[in-house]
Design a protein that fits this description.
Blueprint lengths: L4 E7 L7 H10 L4 E6 L6 H7 L4 E3 L5 H15 L4 E4 L8 H14 L19 H4 L1
Parallel strand pairs: 1-2, 1-4, 2-3
């Protein structure tokens, strides 16, 4: 892969979860870079990021999920990344699925590709808010 690909992971208090997505990306999308955007966590998230030698940005004020994602995208633009993959810090996304999104954007000519867990009917019970 010669493209510059960046995973943007916004986090807020993900001390107990962030290791799983970091390990998953490193194992399944090894040529990509990762930037974790720490949205003013007050737990041990930063310590875990440091232990796992993850690149991260600390926001000076809590911007919320959208602000953290935007910060990661601005970082990608300033650092000349070709592609950005937004990834959650709680372990619910899979790097193998992100690879499918990357493959799709490379072949489709689209500017954006969005994955969905709602395209196929499963037995998983989503909350009403998430369904909406």
């Amino acid at each position: 892969m010669s493209d510059k690909v960046l995973f943007v992971i916004p986090v807020h208090n993900e001390e107990k979860n962030i290791q799983k997505p970091l390990d998953d990306i490193r194992a399944n999308f090894a040529n990509a870079n990762i930037i974790v955007v720490n949205d003013c966590s007050n737990d041990g998230t930063v310590k875990v990021l440091q232990e796992f030698k993850a690149d991260y940005l600390n926001l000076p004020v809590n911007l919320g999920y959208a602000g953290a994602v935007q910060t990661g995208i601005m970082y990608a633009k300033r650092n000349n990344y070709d592609y950005v993959i937004q990834f959650d810090g709680d372990g619910q996304h899979l790097a193998s699925e992100a690879q499918k999104l990357y493959d799709e954007i490379k072949t489709s000519g689209c500017n954006i590709v969005i994955g969905s867990s709602f395209l196929n009917k499963t037995d998983y019970k989503h909350s009403l808010i998430r369904k909406m």
